[in-house]
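Worked Example 4.2. Consider the chain below.
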Amino acid sequence: MLLTSIAALMQLPLFRDVAPDMKIPLANDEACFIDVDQDGWTDLIAGGIIWHNDHGKGFTKLADGFGAVIAADFDNDGFPDLFSWSKMKIFHNEGGKKFTEILMPKLPQMNSRGACWGDFNNDGLVDLYIGGYEDWDRNITFPSAILMNRGGNRFQVTWIDQKFRTRGVTACDFNRDGALDVYASNYRLQPNELWHNDGKGVFTDKAKEYNALATSTGFDGGHSIGAAWADFDNDGEFDLFAGNFAHVDDRGDQPKSRFLRNQGPKLGFKFEDLGTCGVFYQESYASPAAGDIDNDGNVDLFFTTVYGVGSFSKPNFPVLYHNDGKFKFSDVTAPYGMDKLPPTYQAAFADIANNGQLSLSSGGKLFSTTEKLHHWLEVRLQGDGKTVNRSAIGAQVRIKIKDQTFSRQVEAGTGEGNQNDLKLHFGLGEYRGKLSLDITWPGGKKQTVRSVKMDQIVDVKFRA
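Applying the procedure from the previous section yields the following structure tokens:
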């Protein structure tokens, strides 16, 4: 039996904030998990500070002054580099010991709340999609832009769009055509965009065509802040959770957050809008993050709020939603020990202890548990730096067990300006046995790794 029984679910794991014990005074700012020195232990960047993971025993400050970042190896030298979307700067990683700012191309005036890395033209080099936000006081919409990686520390602005006010940006090859697509969460009741990639880095917005606007009848769009890709129903396809900040105004209830189920190839990969699926209403929902926090095989959802007290004097708190299967989600925030967190945009998952258990960074805290939670597998992918970018951004791994297919992707940007660990995490519930990994690399090349044992971290390199 793969999934845990109802009785087992009653024995909920308790998480606690381990930041004080691990000597990490964590800022309450967007979080990026990345192994900066490639020592096999995932480090954490928040508040512009790089915190080095000392083999799961604590964290040491490595460097600071970076702002809010996302990370990927843009020059394929084996060490992940940083893009600061808050400062509009790129920092080259010098062997995991220091970071050097590189020259950026001339950019239009920009204000960003998030970005993502991805190899948009499949040339083996990761590019940047930067979301452009707003200046509310001056009523300015700032442009979004694509910076194509031309090699040799050189980026070129190849695309600018200034229609909408973007907050979160996240990428996924949702239709499995070998090209990495981008989902932009737009604010001010503007429609979200699903930028379909032709494989050469040319994007066309097809959100309406694929039913991915994440809005309600009578509205063009929502106050969207962030979205998260995940295979929430274990059918092998990547779904979307689109988060909406929703006021109650004279037009009635504004669009609520919703799950968009990817219906797969038979229905042209169009999304089915399933509504809230148990995500109860709070006004100030902001940045979502997806991860299987209890290793039962179902990907759970954490969702932040950014008002301490919303309209009508109603308290707002971040919520951990447990995936009960079949797109049914329940609130387990209090029993998991994560209740009454402060307002925050910080939400990201990673296994910081290399023990198969995800930790969560949010609200200036770092939640972990020492309880053994079912079987698991983690996969570290590495490109060859020629055909596939070294960080393997955009790669997908699928594990088929009986009638379910568990899917994960390597992504560098989720929610609003956060980043989960590049190391892929699979909860396996009560399953016992060996596994086969079906890998789809950026560009669509396939690779299978057979007879993989569970409860370990597996390293897989791209094989041409």
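The two ends are 36 Å apart (CA to CA). The CA atoms of residues 61 and 319 lie 29 Å apart. Compare this with Example 4.1 before moving on.
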